[in-house]
Design a protein that fits this description.
Pfam families: Flavodoxin_4. By secondary structure, the chain is of the alpha/beta class. It is built from five helices and eight strands. The strands form two sheets. Strands 1, 2, 5, 6, 7 and 8 form a six-stranded parallel sheet that branches.
């Protein structure tokens, strides 16, 4: 069994596409985080919902992403950049699991903001793990970008 897990949350498919590209080159198991209540598909309404959740520190209940991560040594964690931080479903995942001794690799998609606080927020929640440099993609990732990044962090490609 490959000991790599790729976990992500994606509302508009950008982060999902990046997760699938990472999975293609790592052979890792992929899990989509699904909250018990979906966000609005209207961007402005979703933005208001998310801003409110982040401000309150709200972590939604997950209907996917609760399974054990004990069998995985390397965990890629993907999120859209929402108001300079993680999407609330990703924070729920981080708070539900123990990452002690694991290698955690962040990735995000954004509309121009890069990682902002995302890497720091993941490092804070995974303080007993090794955090490798992540990748932040504006829009859609090209396969070469993902391969180059994986080689840079010395991840052995499939």
């Amino acid at each position: 069994m490959n000991s790599t897990l790729i976990v992500y949350y994606s509302l508009f498919q950008n982060t999902k596409n990046l997760a699938l590209e990472i999975a293609k080159h790592t052979g890792g198991t992929i899990i989509e985080l699904i909250p018990d209540k979906n966000y609005s598909f209207d961007y402005n309404t979703a933005a208001k919902e998310v801003r409110n959740q982040i401000a309150r520190g709200f972590c939604p209940k997950l209907i996917s992403g609760n399974q054990s991560i004990d069998d995985y040594q390397t965990i890629f964690i993907g999120t859209p950049n929402w108001f300079k931080t993680l999407a609330p479903p990703v924070m729920s995942f981080l708070k539900q699991h123990d990452f002690t001794g694991k290698t955690v690799i962040p990735f995000c998609t954004h509309g121009g903001g890069g990682f902002c606080q995302i890497e720091d927020d993941i490092a804070k929640e995974c303080s007993k793990s090794t955090i490798l440099p992540g990748i932040a993609i504006n829009g859609t990732a090209l396969p070469e970008e993902v391969i180059n990044w994986l080689e840079t962090i010395e991840y052995e490609l499939e």
